[in-house]
Amino acid sequence: MSLRLVVFDVDGTLVDSQGQIHQAMQDAFAALGLTPPDRAAVLGIIGLSLPQAMAVLVPAEPEDVQTRLVAAYKEAYFTRRTQGGAEVASPLYPGARAALEALAQQEDVLLAVATGKSRRGLEHLLDAHALRPFFISTQVADDHPSKPHPSMLWQVLSETGVAAEAGVMLGDTSFDMEMGRAAGLSSLGVSWGYHPAATLRDHGAVDVLPEFGALLPALNTIWRMT
């Protein structure tokens, strides 16, 4: 039996965390007395690891200020998560759990995560939504270069033994699409996340899903072609 693989991004793909991320970013900038970025700018960097995200948001600020912003953001995000709970502040998108359950029932399909979140943040989210049993491999920003570097996906392929051409990267940003292509996986976009569908296609998406219900048919189409 040949194994197949689906690797999920988290923020903007499985869960809608934009409100929590935006507010934590506002808190972080306010803590350092800096003018906070607008929502569009924040959504544009979701998916990057925090040091790279801050470098994009405030390129003119010195590295030590960017480092302090990273620390302030982590503190603000943790505080807000503790107050609100991930299941409330970062709800699953409609159809996400049903799609995971359907894929998990297929013996030849393995599921994994590749996210810009920290290990602590991801594990809290997985536990809050009872998602941990679905994923055989979880890769986070703590252990890898920032997306779109393919390191996370290389590690997933190494852990699962699945051939790259049998793998699909599902995400909502250009960083996800580029990362998938760089690792030799097919990149599949979602329309409900933080980058426009046209951007996803421009960066290598073979298709962009209108809803989670379209995931299984899209995967079967990709796998028939490989």
General description of the model:
Helices cover 49% and strands 13% of the residues. The protein has helices spanning 18-31, 39-45, 50-57, 63-84, 86-89, 96-104, 119-128, 151-160, 174-183, 197-202, 215-224, and strands at 4-8, 109-114, 137-139, 167-171, 186-190, 205-209. It contains eleven helices and six strands. The protein is α/β, with parallel strands linked by helices and 226 residues long. Strand 2 (109-114), helix 7 (119-128) and strand 3 form a beta-alpha-beta unit. It has a six-stranded parallel β-sheet, sandwiched between helices. Helix 1 (18-31) packs across helix 4 (63-84) and helix 3 crosses helix 4.
Compute the separation of the termini in Å.
15 Å
Strand order of the largest sheet: 3-2-1-4-5-6
The run of helices and strands is EHHHHHHEHEHEHEHEH
Mean pLDDT: 94
Residue runs with pLDDT of under 50 for 5 or more positions: none
Largest sheet, in brief, is:
6 strands, parallel
Shape, principal axes of CA atoms: globular
Number of helices: 11
Rounded to the nearest angstrom, the radius of gyration is 17 Å
Q: Which oligomeric form is depicted?
A: single chain
Tell me roughly what share of residues is in helical segments: 40-55%
Extended strand count: 6
Q: What share of the residues does DSSP label as strand, in percent?
A: 5-15%
Structural class: alpha/beta
